[in-house]
Amino acid sequence: MKKIDKTIIRETLIIAAGSAVLSAVMNAVFLIIGKWDITVLLGTLLGLIVSVGNFFLMGLTIQSSIGKDEKAIKTRVQFSLIFRLMLMFAVAVGAYFLPKVFNIIPLLISFFFPRIVILFRGFIKTKEETPQGENSHDENGFDDETGSSDDSGDSDGTDM
Q: What is the largest CA-CA distance in the chain?
């Protein structure tokens, strides 16, 4: 078995941390609206484990596909997707039939947390992570290389 790539571990930890924050916020909302009980917490935790596990398995699939031919990659990725979705579905169905243990609503909401973390992460990338090129600008909106501004028109905002 190949060693797990550091990138997969790092990205999974980022997804796990962001999802944990969103889980805490969701539990706080349930508490505020007076609907919180232990089943909400257990549903959240199960959803968190399954959704982060899903992301991790996706990363492992991509890692194991590197260096294979295109047809093998396509087959492997499709099989992985079907397997991971079936696993998530099975967990959700199992939790649905155990309502005294798991609240299904926070479980299902938790499944979306990795996508939300990925979306927000795209908005808060640091300047070092931003690719340099034609569209790179400093904090004032000027092109880093030429010093010119994107704004068309006068810099003082008048139209005279």
A: 71
Neighbours of 153 (CB within 10 A): 9
Q: How many CA atoms lie within 13 A of 47 on its CB side?
A: 30
**pLDDT tens series, the chain, 160 aa:** 578 899 999 999 999 999 999 999 999 999 999 999 999 999 999 999 999 999 999 999 999 888 888 998 999 999 999 999 999 999 999 999 999 999 999 999 999 999 999 999 888 775 445 555 545 444 444 444 444 444 444 444 444 4
Q: What is the rounded distance in angstroms from the CA atom of residue 143 to the CA atom of residue 140?
A: 9
Q: Kindly report the backbone phi and psi dihedral angles of residue 40, in degrees, each rounded to the nearest multiple of 5, phi listed first.
A: -65, -45
Q: Which residues pair with 142 in a beta bridge?
A: 149
Kindly list the distances between the CA atom of residue 138 and the CA atoms of 101, 125, 150, 151, in Å, as whole numbers in the listed order: 52, 14, 11, 14
Does pTM surpass 0.90? no
